[in-house]
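Re: the request from the purification team.
They wanted to know what the chain is likely to look like in 3D before they choose a buffer screen. I agreed to run a prediction and write the result into the notebook, where they can find it.
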Amino acid sequence: MKVKKNDMVVVTEGEYKSKTGKVLKVFLKKQTLIVEGVNFVKRHTKPTQTRQKGGILQKEAPISASNVMVWCANCARGVKVGLRVLPDGSKGRYCKRCGELLG
């Protein structure tokens, strides 16, 4: 998967199309990720000793990695990501549109 934690991504499909957010967590086996401010679900909880108040909690749910693209600040849009071997021998991700290295 070419999307990593703390990347800025834009949603390309579904109810949250064209929304951007930061990746909070990546699940490699399921090929899903949690994006900040995207795909909210409501969870009904009972009061417990640790959480004195019960009620309806709202939190982000995983979204498929195939439905997002990495945001390139230079291009100001979602782009495809490629892998490149850098001169020092390490691997780096780059924008396939403008060629700039991504963090």
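For the purification team: Strands lie at 8-11, 20-27, 32-35, 40-45, 55-60, 63-64, 68-72, 77-79, 81-85, 91-95.
Please add any questions underneath this entry.
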